[in-house]
Specification:
Layout (H helix, E strand, L loop, with lengths): L1 H26 L7 E12 L2 E2 L6 E2 L5 E18 L4 E3 L6 E5 L8 E10 L1 E10 L3 H4 L2 H5 L1 H8 L3 E3 L3 E2 L2 E8 L6 E7 L10 E13 L6 E7 L18 E2 L5 H10 L2 E7 L2
Parallel strand pairs: 1-14, 12-15
Antiparallel strand pairs: 1-2, 1-7, 3-4, 4-5, 4-6, 4-8, 4-11, 8-13, 9-10, 11-12, 14-16
Length: 267
């Protein structure tokens, strides 16, 4: 009996020492100068349904809609680690178009951030659209993105600015069927700023290392464009949203709330 107790005590000490050693190793991990990649994976849906082009989705009233074109601009991505340090992706490359047409078979669109500082990140912040500082750089300061946005149909003209989101399709209500639906919300030069930012807390940390590339799976609920902070009706003019000073801020605020984190995958 004494031998059994002694053996158990030795085993307990060994486990304790091993745990302490592991904690010490984690605490002394040197990440200075180390970088890696991080993937933002966007997955568009409508409520608890997958988003599929041409599928009819119901709104909160008697209206419904079908979409055949969906894309939006994401910019100014920043990551905050577990010590409160903020990593901001380089400004010149920190703007992206998320286009549903680019999705894989599962409807996922990938944005890979390269050379991210190694850390354990606990939240992600980004903007929807183009902020005024970037816009005021002018055509020369926009670099390649100006041409990309133009090719993707995400601009009206330089004077008017960018379309932050583009939804094209049709809508149906009690009095009409398959009427044109076009939501092209954005800022209007410097006179109307519809740029919005959001911060999402991660359910578990995204561990960026030289040999570890985490994926942050972001869900975008397209239904919240119309039934978000404010519920809007196509019959009240929200079937054609472009540069109106009343309608566009409503849509901008709704879009700010359409994103959530589904999960974080670490290698």
């Amino acid at each position: 009996m004494k031998i059994t107790k002694f053996t158990f005590a030795l085993l307990s000490c060994a486990i304790l020492l091993s745990a302490c050693s592991s904690d010490d190793d984690a605490a002394t991990e040197d990440l200075s100068g180390q970088t890696g990649d991080l993937v933002l994976k966007f997955d568009n849906g409508v409520g608890d349904q997958d988003f599929i082009f041409g599928t009819e989705y119901a709104k909160s009233n008697n209206e419904s809609y079908k979409v055949d074109n969906l894309k939006y601009i994401i910019s100014n991505v920043r990551l905050t680690d577990d010590e409160g340090n903020v990593f901001e992706y380089p400004t010149e490359d920190n703007i992206f178009i998320v286009d549903e047409e680019d999705g894989n078979n599962a409807g996922e669109i990938y944005i890979t951030l390269e050379n991210v500082d190694a850390a354990d990140y606990v939240s992600v912040t980004y903007g929807v659209g183009v902020d005024q500082e970037r816009f005021l750089l002018g055509a020369e300061g926009q670099g390649d993105f100006l041409d990309e946005a133009s090719d993707e149909g995400m601009m009206w003209s330089w004077a008017s600015g960018y379309k932050f989101i583009r939804i094209d399709g049709t809508f149906t209500n009690d009095t009409t069927t398959d009427e044109p639906l076009n939501v092209h919300m954005g800022s209007v030069g410097t006179s109307l700023d519809n740029y919005r930012e959001l911060t999402l807390v991660l359910p578990n940390s995204a561990r960026v290392r030289t040999d570890d590339t985490p994926e942050i799976h972001l869900k975008a609920d397209i239904s919240k464009v119309f039934d978000g902070t404010t519920s809007v009706n196509f019959a009240d003019g929200y079937d054609q949203v472009h540069t109106d000073a009343t309608e566009t801020p409503v849509i901008a605020t709704n879009i700010q709330g359409m994103f959530s984190v589904d999960h974080v995958h670490n290698d």
